[in-house]
Amino acid sequence: MELTLAAAFASSALLLSNFASIMLASSRLKARRIIPPPAEKQPPVSIIVPSRGVEPFAEEMLDRAFSLDWPRYELIFCVAGAEDPVVKLINAAIARFPKVPARLLVGDDRISANPKLNNCVKGWQAARHDWVILADSNVLMPKDYVQHLMAAWRPDTGLVCSTPIGSRPDGFWAEVECAFLNTLQARWQYAGEALGLGFAQGKSMLWNKPMLDANGGIQALAAEIAEDAAATKLVNGLALRVNLVASPFEQPLGQRTFAEIWSRQARWARLRRVTFPLFFAPEILTGVALPLLLALVAAASAGVSLPTTALCVLAFAYVPECLLAWSKGWYLSPRSVTAMIVRDAMLPAVWARGWLAGAVEWRGNAMTIRTSAITELEEIA
After folding, report:
1. Coil, strand, or helix at residue 168?
2. Transmembrane region positions (predicted)?
């Protein structure tokens, strides 16, 4: 009897915390809306785009970057090597949009073991304006991209970010990626912000350049292997806040394989484990695997139908999650619940992998992430 009650209580508590995170995230998130171009004079912005390789929808994402509704902005594309196939696409886009100030910078400044950060250094140094956005090349920028970032800046802000929202999945495993990115990772990040725990996300980062330059410049982001973890700690150390945009930006996915998803999730888990171990440890409690197991233990002890118990747990977990995606205009399909179940089945293994040493992969680089946040990189592709 005591085992039944304990298991039932623990399962209910986990399911309620899951539901609470959805409600908290929903309170911070807004459905996609268009912010009109600013009428009054606005500060110019430098947008730095580190690139490597040709990704799905690359040409469309380049065209979007050149079509923003901000009065004055420059684009600085950064590539580590001139032989990268994306160079041809970037140069073609620059030629198509001659009215938008844009440059392609080639070179690799090895200030850290983070390839992306190394790629950004030359762009940061070349930026002409006080407001700088570091934008991953796979962010699908809406016309009001800069407006959304600027609208989230407050007097006590040190950084504005956007978590990626997966869209345009091609195939089931890409839908699993959507389930990871959207109603799990984005949800918990916005729930954390609602509780005053703002964490940076490297997809889109709006910086006030003089502020960061006065505190070590972009080199300060080399303090951790993940630049967003270093950014979070730097901003918090200045008693400032990391804010998230109200309507996060899309990342079109295209095709994905299980191996790609596992590699990415394993890398992120290991990075979170190294940079924020106290926040990473309770991640095992997220997802439906543990509350489902506890509910089934309680049901078996009480002689309650196991299939009925399982269906009730799954419904309580996934109906609110689907409603969150639907209400915010995120990707949702008849296979979404199945994708969420597969995601949650993967979560314990991903969490366990985060505690283990060994190499993980980042775009062809084998990265050995140690607890000291020092890594070794080896080119493997």
Report:
1. strand
2. 6-25, 274-300, 306-326
pLDDT at 91: 97
Residue 374: pLDDT band by 50, 70, 90 thresholds?
very low
Domain boundary assignment for the chain: 2-26+275-379, 30-255
The mean predicted confidence, pLDDT, of the chain is 91
Q: Which of 85, 61, 12 is nearest to 254 (CA)?
A: 61
30-255 is a CATH 3.90.550.10 domain: yes
Q: Can you read off the two tokens belonging to residue 342?
A: 């597969």
Length of the chain in terms of residues written: 381
Helix (H, G, I), strand (E, B) or coil at 14: helix
Kindly report the number of other CB atoms within 10 A of residue 223's CB atom. Answer: 16
| Rounded Cα distance, 144 and 129, in Å | 19
**Helix spans in the chain (H):** 2-28, 58-65, 86-96, 115-126, 145-151, 172-180, 187-194, 209-213, 227-237, 258-275, 277-280, 289-302, 306-328, 336-354
Q: What is the pTM of this model?
A: 0.90
Check residues 94 and 36 and name the one with the higher pLDDT: 94
